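queue> pop job 88
queue> type: inverse folding (structure -> sequence)
queue> payload:
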């Protein structure tokens, strides 16, 4: 990672970072206030609390990721860009992990960026934090200086032409600068295979529905281009030198905290509302019971709720 000798204006942030599809149950990053996802328009301002909750639950994992990135760096980065920052939870963690760096959050959603700025002020690093509003990757052209570290946390898959977007990300790196790409991993698990109601294996069937919705979302994006998701190969094609891939586990065993339980309930409710029609009647009825706070079998009350998810990060550097 190159050491920056300059003072940036600051980027933006696309929404989570939930961000994660197979992604995360709620999208992590994107490039616009309303994104098309699985055939439905997403209002990222409405999703903000869910995005924040997911990122906050995963804070320990992001801290592990940042420690790993710091170990691989040649020096402390001067400018860190969070491309698709959403409400800025991860941006704030970067500011804490790299106390000498300036952090720019880039996102297409003005309401999410407003939340990011408010968070930075609450955490006491507003003097090192700026935002850039606009669609990725074009919004990166507003950066005053190239990035020493560019983080794209589940934001790339919201861009139609991922190959072109990676080339744009690479072009905004300083010589020796690093790109860290969070994509892939494994879907979250919240419940045992057999939960005592309905047909066993509900979450596997939800994953299949989400995977189909994700494929449709990708196909409907402007300029969508199909790509084999060989991230090191795509990073190489962007003119970068891949330096490693590592997965990090979010493991919150039962019994979970109230915050984790609320997040699970919100995630399943969003699935029920947005994709429930793709499930059979028995699975819909099971989901309805899981979401009914008055039902002893609901995720609001059952003791076996947990959160288990793998986040995979791919890194590459721009040759000096």
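queue> result:
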């Amino acid at each position: 990672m190159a050491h920056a000798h300059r003072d940036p204006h600051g980027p933006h942030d696309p929404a989570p970072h939930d961000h994660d599809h197979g992604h995360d149950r709620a999208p992590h990053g994107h490039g616009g206030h309303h994104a098309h996802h699985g055939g439905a328009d997403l209002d990222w301002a409405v999703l903000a609390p869910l995005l924040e909750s997911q990122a906050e639950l995963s804070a320990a994992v992001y801290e592990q990721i940042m420690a790993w990135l710091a170990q691989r760096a040649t020096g402390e980065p001067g400018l860190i860009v969070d491309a698709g920052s959403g409400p800025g939870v991860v941006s704030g963690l970067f500011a804490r992990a790299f106390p000498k760096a300036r952090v720019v959050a880039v996102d297409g959603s003005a309401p999410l960026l407003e939340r990011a700025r408010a968070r930075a002020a609450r955490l006491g690093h507003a003097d090192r934090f700026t935002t850039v509003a606009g669609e990725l990757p074009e919004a990166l052209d507003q950066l005053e200086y190239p990035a020493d570290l560019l983080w794209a946390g589940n934001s790339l898959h919201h861009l139609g032409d991922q190959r072109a977007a990676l080339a744009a990300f690479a072009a905004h790196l300083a010589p020796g600068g690093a790109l860290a790409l969070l994509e892939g991993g494994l879907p979250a698990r919240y419940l045992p295979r057999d939960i005592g109601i309905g047909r066993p294996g509900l979450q596997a069937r939800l994953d299949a529905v989400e995977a189909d919705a994700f494929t449709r979302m990708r196909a409907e994006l402007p300029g969508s281009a199909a790509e084999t998701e060989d991230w090191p190969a795509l990073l190489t094609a962007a003119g970068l030198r891949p330096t490693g891939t590592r997965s990090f586990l979010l493991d919150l065993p039962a019994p979970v905290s109230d915050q984790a339980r609320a997040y699970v309930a919100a995630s399943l409710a969003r699935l029920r509302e947005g994709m429930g029609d793709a499930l059979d009647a028995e699975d819909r009825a099971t989901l309805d019971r899981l979401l009914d706070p008055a039902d002893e079998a609901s995720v609001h009350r059952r003791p076996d709720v947990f959160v288990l998810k793998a986040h995979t990060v791919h890194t590459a550097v721009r040759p000096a």
